[in-house]
Amino acid sequence: MFFSVCQAQKKEVFNKDNKGQSYAILSAQGTKDVFSLAQKNYFSTNFLVIKENCDSMIIFSNNAVQYADSALLFACDSCNVAKERMLLAKFYQLKVLEYCSLIKNENSNESIHLLSEKLMDAAGNGIVEAYAASLYFEKEEEEEGKLDLVLDEEVEDVYYKEIPREISKLEIDEISYMTIKELYGKRLAEIDDELISLKKRAEKSRGNDLAEVNKVIAHLVNEEEKCFEKMRGSEDRLVSVRNELSLEMLKVVHKDIFSSEKEGFYNENVPIPEINEIPIGLVYKIQIGFFKSQLPSEHFNGIFPLSSQKIDDTYYRYVAGNFAKYQDAKDAKVKVVEKGYTDSFVVAFLNGEKVSISDALENEENK
């Protein structure tokens, strides 16, 4: 999801002490405006509205590109990751401009629909990359995937700061297909209301008026069939993405992957994975419990990511999350307990082998 990345940027938009970061955030915000209009075009059949939206998107995208250029201009020499991510954001913003130009020259609803889907994908990637770039303008010597030494001037002490986790392409895809599915659902509800109204009108109509009403009904029925077909396609793609995402998140060791509110993610089409592999290094997990049989996914009420492990060919152990620090796992366990799993506790693994919490803490302190 890129929404979690966006929420991480809760600071003043323009910071004179960090202009590169500020311009990166402004670039992301401009691309968010594009994404919103692209969603509207996706379902619109009004060519005039579509072309007007494209004109607005071109303005927003040009502004976003200018902000991206400004961010690159103010990037210090050591901000290599920030510059790489910002250049990637600019690439997607330029793709948006390309798709807008193509849409403006199209007169086919089907072609506009397909181009709008590509435009949404490009804009979504642009948002994520620009926000991600902003995170790396923070300190001159930050390196991707490592821990930084940051000086706290008030206590004159040094502590480790974990670099924010990068959002994966699968998480972006999940948001995109969820959005598309919701939009189709909304349009189908609108069509249903329109058909009810038109059928009532048809009962009272005669002659040419009846013929016109029946013509509109036929058009809506045809649109309804296409919407159902496309929504099923979006649902199928969402299921595929979620299955891949479920496995991908079990390889990521970071507190931000854990959620207690991801309801509806696991289901009969996206089962809780049974997996024995644990990431290399020190990893904490939350053990929810042992059960004599596999439990239905809804039993876990929004906890993500989950995995099950068969023990002694008799029991199933369910665990949640991957955490690098004991305190992060302990904080997440509170949320699991709030869900009703009062017997949950933190377990630790070192290079795939289960170890005691005391040994894990000693290892954590010696890092």
What is the average of the pLDDT values? 83
Distance between the termini: 31 Å
How much β-strand is present in the residues?
5-15%
Overall helicity: 55-70%
Low-confidence stretches: 1-12, 139-161
- In the CATH hierarchy, the architecture of the largest domain is Up-down Bundle
Strands, total number: 7
Radius of gyration: 25 Å
Domain count, please report it. Answer: 3
Query: Class of the largest domain in CATH?
Result: Mainly Alpha
The oligomeric status of these chains comes to: single chain
Major sheet description: 5 strands, antiparallel
Shape: flat
Total of helices: 9
Describe the structure in your own words:
The protein contains nine helices and seven strands. The protein has three domains: 2-142, Four Helix Bundle (Hemerythrin (Met), subunit A), CATH 1.20.120; 172-249; 255-365, no CATH class. The chain is flat, with a radius of gyration of 25 Å. The chain has helices at residues 2-7, 19-43, 47-74, 80-104, 109-135, 169-204, 207-249, 326-338, 357-365, and strands at residues 147-152, 157-162, 282-291, 306-311, 315-323, 345-350, 353-355. The strands form two sheets. Strands 4-5-3-6-7 form a five-stranded antiparallel sheet, covered by helices on one side. A two-stranded antiparallel ribbon has the order 1-2. The protein is 58% helix and 13% strand. α2 (19-43) runs parallel beside α4 (80-104), α4 (80-104) packs antiparallel against α5 and α6 runs antiparallel to α7. The chain is an alpha+beta fold and 367 residues long.
